[in-house]
Amino acid sequence: MSKLDKSSLRREILQQRRSLSAEDWQHKSNLICDRLKTLTIFREAQTILAYFSFRQEPDLTPLFALDKTWAFPRCVGKSLVWHSWQPGTELQTGKYGIQELLPTAPTIAPITADLILVPTVASNDRGFRLGYGGGFYDRLLSPESNLNVPTIGIVFDFASGIAIPTDPWDRPLDFVCTEMNIYVY
Ligand code: ADP
Ligand code: MG
Fold this sequence. Notes:
Elements (H helix, E strand, L loop, with lengths): L2 H16 L3 H16 L2 H5 L2 E3 L19 E8 L2 E7 L5 E3 L5 E3 L13 E5 L2 E2 L5 E2 L5 H5 L10 E4 L20 E3 L4 E3 L1
Parallel strand pairs: 1-2, 1-6, 6-9, 9-10
Antiparallel strand pairs: 2-3, 4-5, 7-8, 10-11
């Protein structure tokens, strides 16, 4: 499928997501957090790779108070570097306007994680994912990286289970969590 198809779909979904009211966004985000907390794989995970919400991505902040080791990504070249975080750890604004940890914060090897919460623009009915177009999570989850850590795509329901152009390098998610459902793939 052409790049153009992905980018026009991406634009459309992001526009819809931006049009959610702040109340609706927060409400749906809280439902996603509540739903994640019911999932055994989430409850049992000790080390979780997550993200800080930006551009009205589902806000997972309430989860970060749970007693787990949380790690967040920093874009370095074409890769993500993961840093551990505790409440109060200093953040800075990175190149894409995303909140990031300082380069000096302790790093975590993704292989040591029990779970990855993957920011997802849209997902299809087989767990394939549309991201922002950087391919960062496709590279993280590529067969060569040999990372057998379960993944949960986090997405609002309106953007889940829709037709998405897929390319050979796209990696499917194991679960998708929305405010309405948890889908298992
Ligand atoms: P996204 O997954 O962020 O929506 P795409 O699937 O369009 O974005 O991928 C973006 C770019 O990332 C593609 O041009 C692709 O070449 C590159 N890419 C994805 N996976 C890999 C990989 N495993 N190795 C190298 N490049 C990759
Ligand atoms: Mg992709």
